[in-house]
TrEMBL record:
PANTHER family: DENITRIFICATION REGULATORY PROTEIN NIRQ, MOXR FAMILY PROTEIN. The lineage of its organism: Bacteria, Pseudomonadati, Pseudomonadota, Alphaproteobacteria, Hyphomicrobiales. GO terms for molecular function: ATP binding; ATP hydrolysis activity. Residues 181-265 form the CbbQ/NirQ/NorQ C-terminal domain. Gene3D superfamilies: P-loop containing nucleotide triphosphate hydrolases (3.40.50.300). This is CbbQ/NirQ/NorQ/GpvN family protein. Pfam families: AAA_5, CbbQ_C. Keywords: ATP-binding, Nucleotide-binding. It comes from Aliirhizobium smilacinae. The keyword ATP-binding applies. Belongs to the CbbQ/NirQ/NorQ/GpvN family.
Length: 267
């Protein structure tokens, strides 16, 4: 593969690709295009970004967006330090200055003014205007903006505006096919593949209930937790209950139905 490795390849977080996303990421980076990752929680988006950042030898700045996060939290602000006011860069500004990857996780959660600072960075100007300091930072060629969001989650109110969405190359993520997911969960937890198989089977059945009884299906992350508990010696049914059922629902009826499904699949 044609890679521009700038540092050693050690300590690259493991990532099992579902398709062509690694090539797509690298090509987007080479061509200085921003990237949007869509997909359910716990399916590997964050892992993918850390894997790619390490592979490309780029520093990674990750920001978990929340409903209080404003543009100034990303760009920076003047702070009082011993009687002086000093400008302190926010994480986005730092990533632009150092030419790294800035990953805004769950970007739809952030306040509206965040879109305003992202716009000039996501078109061919690639600039970050810092209104407060009067600076206009030009992003170096190696800088890349990556954002993620979970389109199915919550309501239609929490979605990206088309004018923002259409500035990104987008990759849709979903859970891995069964055999790959078994490999990933076995690798991450240390539990044998043969013992992981029924857990993944159950997860797939629970995912099929999404939209009916459940808002969200079991993530790969929860599968890894569950397999880790079993690998550490916990009784499998107890592990499934704590890592795959209790986190999904607070409704007693739904929980009972899920536990029945578990009895059928996990011995
Ligand atoms: N394709 C994958 N390759 C390796 N590990 C994965 C993969 N998908 C999910 N995982 C495992 O699931 C966990 C949660 O994934 P994460 O990237 O945090 O999900 P997301 O960011 O989509 O919510 C990871 O820490 C890792 O253990
Ligand atoms: Mg994540």
């Amino acid at each position: 593969m044609n890679m521009h490795l700038r540092h050693s390849t050690s300590h690259i977080p493991a990532y099992a690709p579902a398709g062509n996303e690694c090539v797509l990421f690298e090509t987007a980076w080479t061509r200085q295009l921003p990237l949007l990752l869509k997909g359910p929680t716990g399916c590997g988006k964050t892992r993918f970004v850390s894997h790619m950042a390490a592979k490309l030898g780029l520093p990674l700045t990750t920001v978990s967006c929340h409903d209080d996060l404003a543009a100034a939290d990303l760009t920076g602000r003047y702070l009082l330090k011993g009687g002086d006011t000093v400008w302190v860069d926010g994480p986005l500004t730092r990533a632009v200055r150092e030419g790294g990857i800035c990953y805004l996780d769950e970007v739809v959660e952030a306040r509206k003014d965040v879109a305003v600072v992202l716009h000039p960075l996501t078109d061919d100007r690639r600039i970050l205007p810092l209104e407060r300091t009067g600076e206009q930072l030009e992003a170096p060629g190696s800088f890349m903006l990556v954002v993620s969001y979970n389109p199915g989650y919550q309501s239609l109110l929490k979605t990206l505006k088309p004018s923002t969405r259409q500035r990104f190359v987008a990759i849709e993520f979903d859970f891995l096919p069964k055999a790959r997911e078994i490999e990933v969960v076995a690798e991450e937890s240390g539990l044998d593949a043969a013992r992981v198989e029924p857990l993944v089977e159950l997860a797939r059945r629970l995912r099929a209930l999404k939209g009916h009884d459940l808002e969200e299906g079991v993530s790969t992350r929860l599968l890894v937790y569950c397999a880790s508990l079993i690998d550490a010696g916990l009784d499998p049914r107890e592990a499934v209950r704590s890592a795959m059922i209790e986190p999904l629902t607070d409704e007693p009826d739904v929980r009972t139905a899920l536990l029945e499904l578990m009895q059928a699949v996990i011995r």
